[in-house]
User: What shape does this take?
Amino acid sequence: GVLDDERVGEIESVVETRVADAIEAAESEPRPRPGELFEHAYAERPPELERQYEAFAAFHEAHGDEAFLEE
Assistant: This one.
């Protein structure tokens, strides 16, 4: 088949619907805890990530979850 303007419009419509559905599904999930960013990615954190985690932990200790969960 030939890709014409009508087919492009159909494809765009399908993509827009799928993206909107994906956004709705993602936004319906509970917000993750801020520290989850550092969990489950590595068996052992690389040194740079460990430094970032330490900075995060200090900031989190001082400011709590609210500092990270603002919309």
About this structure: The radius of gyration is 20 Å. The mean pLDDT is 91. The chain is about 60% helix and 0% strand. The first helix runs from residue 5 to 28.
